[in-house]
C-alpha cells in the first residue's frame, strides 16, 4: 500500500480538547433528542435553505439521520486519524519530516471530525428549537458560519504543511 514510515505520535492537548468539545456536543445533542422526543411535534424542520429558513418539514424520525451520519463520520474519520501515513502528502515527505506531516494532517483530521460533530449537533438543536417554538433558529448567519468554521482548519493545515521542510 505505502512505503511510508509508520510512527506512533502521542495525541496532543489540542486534539484532546477538540475531542472533548466535539464528543460533548454530539452526545449532548443525542441526550437532548432522547429527553425531548415525546414533546416534539410529528413534523419538524427537515431542511434549510441558504438563508437558514426552513424550506421542508418532515417526520420527527428524520432528526435521527443527523446522529446516524455523525456516528458514521466519527468512526470513519477516527480511523483516518489513527493512520496518518495513508493520507495524501506532497513528494517532499521524507523519513526526517514524516512526523511533522503526520501530526499536522492528523490534527486537521481531528478538527474536521469534531467540527462535523459540532455542526450536526448545532443543526439538531436548531431543528428542535424551531419545532418546539423556542426560537426562529439562527437564520442567515448559519451557512456562512458553518462554511468558515469548516474552512479555517483546512486553510491552517495547508499553511502549516507548506512550512514543513
UniProtKB/TrEMBL annotation:
Q: Is-annotated flag, keyword Hydrolase?
A: no
Q: Which Pfam families match?
A: DUF1648
Q: Which residues cross the membrane?
A: 16-37, 57-77, 115-132, 138-159
Indicate the segments forming the DUF1648 domain, all copies.
27-70
Presence of the UniProt keyword Membrane in the record = yes
**Which superkingdom does the taxonomy of this entry point to?**
Bacteria
Keyword list (alphabetical) reads: Membrane, Transmembrane, Transmembrane helix
Name used for this protein in its record: DUF1648 domain-containing protein
What organism does this protein naturally occur in?
A: Ornithinibacillus bavariensis
Amino acid at each position: 500500500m505505502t512505503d511510508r514510515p509508520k510512527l506512533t505520535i502521542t495525541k496532543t492537548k489540542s486534539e484532546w480538547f477538540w475531542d472533548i468539545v466535539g464528543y460533548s456536543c454530539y452526545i449532548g445533542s443525542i441526550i437532548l433528542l432522547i429527553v425531548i422526543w415525546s414533546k416534539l411535534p410529528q413534523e419538524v424542520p427537515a431542511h434549510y435553505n441558504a438563508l437558514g429558513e426552513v424550506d421542508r418539514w418532515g417526520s420527527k424520525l428524520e432528526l435521527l439521520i443527523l446522529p446516524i451520519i455523525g456516528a458514521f463520520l466519527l468512526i470513519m474519520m477516527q480511523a483516518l486519524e489513527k493512520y496518518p501515513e495513508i493520507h495524501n502528502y506532497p513528494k517532499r515527505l521524507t523519513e526526517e519530516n514524516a512526523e511533522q506531516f503526520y501530526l499536522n494532517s492528523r490534527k486537521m483530521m481531528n478538527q474536521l471530525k469534531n467540527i462535523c460533530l459540532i455542526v450536526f449537533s448545532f443543526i439538531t438543536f436548531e431543528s428542535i428549537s424551531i419545532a418546539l417554538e423556542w426560537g426562529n433558529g439562527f437564520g442567515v448567519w448559519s451557512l456562512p458560519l458553518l462554511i468558515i468554521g469548516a474552512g479555517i482548519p483546512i486553510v491552517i493545515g495547508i499553511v502549516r504543511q507548506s512550512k514543513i521542510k
